Amino acid sequence: LLPLSSLEEVPRGKRTQEFSLRGWAARRRAALYFRTLLKGLPAPVRRRVMGELAVALGVEPHEDPHHLLPMLTWEELERMARSAVAIGSHGLTHEILTRLSASELTEQVSSSRRLLAERLGQVIRGFAYPNGRLGDFDQTTSAALRAVGYDYAMTFEPGLFASGEDPYTIP
Question: Cα(first)–Cα(last) distance of the chain, in Å?
Fold first, then answer.
């Protein structure tokens, strides 16, 4: 059992959860549970809790819990970019952008764009909002994306998109 009782932001019924950590699949289930549980928290709180969990588990803390999940490698991204696939950004560390300060927001969207452009040798035009739900993007996030050079942004909201609509809220 990993106690989370000191974390008031987490609903009471979810402050204690039991996981088997035997095997990759079990550790992945635990990581997905905590990723979902904690991703809505402010970044400093999430980092503190992840650090506490790492200590409780006797493992090295890792800034980004996504390192446990399967992601594309740089080699795979480079091969896709050479095959005329447009690669877009998703932020540097998958923060919910509306929960960041202005400077953190700019750092997330500009650094991820710059890193991808440098590694892939192509202009990064598009952005997909982390989580992508209403409340995870707003006029401030759209303005930040526009200011650093993105041409459009995708949400995870259902809907249709017509010419002339806001290119920073594409469903």
Answer: 40
pLDDT of residue 103: 94
Residues 2-35: pLDDT tens digits?
A: 455 445 555 555 556 676 777 767 766 776 677 6
Instruction: Give 17's strand partners.
Output: 2
- Token duo for residue 35: 């990723």
3-state secondary structure (DSSP) of residue 136: coil
Half-sphere exposure at residue 102, Cβ-oriented, CA atoms within 13 angstroms? 4
Pairing state between β 16-17 and 2-3: antiparallel
CB atoms within 10 A of CB 95: 22
State the amino acid at position 157 in one-letter form: E
And the tokens for 105? 């927001």
As a residue count, the chain comes to 171
